[in-house]
Amino acid sequence: MTSEKDSRGTARPTQTQRSDRATDRPALDPTVTELTGLLFDRHDREQVHAPWRELISGAAFAPRPELPYGERAALSYQRLHLVNDTLANPEELALDARRLAALHEWTGVVDSGLTTLAGIHYNLFLGSLLDHDTHRRDVSRYTSLDRTGTFLCTELEHGNDAAALRTTAVLDRATGGFVLHTPHTGAQKFMANTSAVGGPKSAVVAARLLVDGEDHGVFLFLTPLSDDMGPLPGITVRPLPPRLGSPVDHCLTSFNHVSLPRTALLEADHGRLTPEGQLRSDLGNRRKRFLHSIARVTTGKLCMSAAAIGVSRTSLAIATRFAYNRHISGPKAGTRVPLAAHRSHHGRLLCATATTYAMTFLHRATVARWVEHTPQERAEAERQVAVTKGWNTWQARAIATECRERCGARGLFAANRLSELVTDLEGTITAEGDNLVIWLKAAAEMIFGHEVPPHSAPGTDPADRHLSDLAFLRDLLCDAETIWQARTRDALRQGQSGDPLARWNAASPYALELVEAHARRKAADAFLAAAERAEGTAAHPPLVGLCRLFLLKELTKSSGDLLAEQRMTVDQVRALSASVEHLIGELAPHLRTLVDAFDIPESVLAGIPLVHGDATHVDHCLAAVEPIGAAEPI
Q1: Residue 612 vs residues 326, 406, 537, 564, 617: alpha-carbon distances, Å
Q2: Can you give the pTM of this predicted structure?
Q3: Could you please report the per-residue DSSP string of 368-382?
Q4: In this predicted model, what pLDDT tens digit does every residue of 347-365 receive, in sequence order?
């Protein structure tokens, strides 16, 4: 595939590709067009999203579930080169969080193995080198993919507590360089893609900097791992068994007194070594230096959030097409109706669609916050990234599972993608910080260092407000957040004195509920802002209805607490279910429109038998399978 390049290093489609895109995107009604613009950054869509959408539309990115595990892993590396070929300047991609996240959002739906490799190479590896550019390194070997980059932080015995990792990098006074070493089996680097698959590799390795026996904490070290012949001397790589989801060449990696040059240390204001071997740092303790060293993990969380919403949208596109193409017996003898005609079917898909819109708008708001934050706002921006990553990836798993179930046994076939999309999401939930752990960290910060926004109509009696009022519904989500914050504070204060762990154990369940309530409210705010931007367009009525559906469904989870705290009336709680069902009835005719706005390339959907209806599905799935015996033609 050939492309022109613009000044930002983004691939622009050639004239041939532009005509192909016009074919791939048939004329749509104004509602779909406006919804798509709202979902995909509107004015930035062509720069941020279009190149990746165009890329995955090509035949080279067609799913290949029939390939053996190892061949699929190798294919992901081949596709990484195709990604790189579209870039005028890979360094610019590494420094652009919006485009990095969008890369994950689109490639994750066709090859999550590729998404993993791209996130590691461009964000964790190349991004870390660029963020610590004291030595003005030549990175051309990595931007050309002559050497693929990887990132070695997690150890066999140190995952979420990576700050306690045991790999060491000892300053060698004789050479001025460092000696990288794995002191015991528990310090082996775990899950990194360090095998021979994909060619020669280099890594950014997290290790303890030891100078004359003094531990200065964890820093990053640029370390060549392999060449065309395999691992370099002193480096041992052991492949791990296959895992759930798309194949990646995960391994255990260890170092036996590997010599590194002085320039291997990634230095910046958080820590520099003087020629005499003295550490100079703007940060006061080792933990802060560690967090600065691995700061790229925050952008990685954004990328995981993006991958999750891409999977949610694709799962819904598949399941919705199936719902309209699959026909079953109707209420009258001899009649047949689509699955989508049944409330028990389209209602679940609509609720999942509402959540997916909320996830997408929350993700966009979080990316903007991260890109635009000031130094004083960094801590809060990082927390929002962590909260969004956890909420989006957990919601995505529930949505993808729902979509798979709505397609019955057909959803289990690999050719139909749904079962693999579900398992791929398990990786996003754990990667770049386990969801539960990053939420607990956010919870600890929010107990006292967080203020819930005020009501839109303070002092108004709940009885005077109505469930059709979006501002009222949003205020109720704020109330739920306030309730859980107060309960968390009470639990912490009443905890066992003199035992910090016991106090935290008593408060942490409430604290996690606080984060959940906060995530729902932030998603609601982002959704409401998008609906406001749609005012005066054809998209506004269905978008407002979908937003209200999301708010009502989320409030149902807190209705008991809101009633107990007199934030809702008995009649309002009783009316919740009926309001949801009435709204689903109103939105049902718009389901296809709302899902078509996800803009999944037709070429991607064309390769999924499930979306084409009953007649072709089994033939597609069996096309590559030899029959066991002969039978009479049907």
Answers
A1: 9, 16, 32, 50, 7
A2: 0.91
A3: HHHHH--GGGHHHHH
A4: 999 999 999 999 999 999 9
